[in-house]
Amino acid sequence: MCATLSQDADAFAHVAPTVGMAGASPTDIEECTLETARRQLGSYAVPVDRTDRIPLSVAVGRVLATDATANDRLPGADVGVDETVFERGHQLRPADVGLLKAAGVNELLVRQRPQVGIVPTGDGVVEYDAGAGDRIETAGFTLAQYADRWGGKVTYRSPVADDAPALRMAVQRDLTRDIVVLTGTEPGDTLREVVRELGDIAADRVAISPGRETGLAVVQNRPVLLLPESPVAARVGAVQLLRPLLKGFGDAPLPAHPSRAATLDGPLDTDDAVRSFVPVALDGQSATPLSGTDLATATRADGWVTVPADEPDPAVGDTVSVEDWDYLP
User: Model pTM?
Assistant: First the structure.
């Protein structure tokens, strides 16, 4: 499919390293930039060759595995019988299926959706009915909803405790998927030791904030995304890394998030060593920065302001671009 595990780790060691951790092995000492992380994960995103034949009624959002050709001549359109209406690789929109229906098409051959396993981890993390000292798992559950809308076929697992044998079984179970996502992890924890034993941790950190604890691994030629438990940090990691990875596996276009201009009405305080993503609440033409990394902050955000590394923060009163991450094509 691509380079060997050791070659993949070497690539991280030679491209855009920004910081090291004393005592770590050569394959997991590096913090990589977001661009390097995307490129390395993307090298594993070979479009799936599995296909489904599906009725037109459930085709919106799917990617054509072959050209869609007309069975009937389209009235008022320069498309005749057996001529191509949409080419292979086209991602179908609602209006497209209406046009295909007019062309006498009732079913289509589409690519299967890439399979992604999402495994929440951590002691005291429960799916429901939290007792004293427990907390309800939300990061993985929320990401499962996003991944489904991004075109993935999602398997969301029950939380797994911080126990090496249980974690090992959980990771191995989902290696039949195209992508594995593990939440609730940070550098040096039990889960990363387990993943290191099974494959390679190619980067223990990614230079983004929030979510600097995000890690990248490869196990049996499967890309493994290691995300923090924080809902905001996990969402940043998923939007910036999982979304393009799913689109690559699905051979689907990766459209830019819609954005709007707004006036910043509160100060930012970002780390200029990393690319920062700041959640904001919108009120008319004003954007108010939100603090915190909990579920409430993630839910209240109307959009996100990006501050690249090594660039100064926008000042109060500056016009900023606010991206809508809840736009889900």
Answer: 0.86
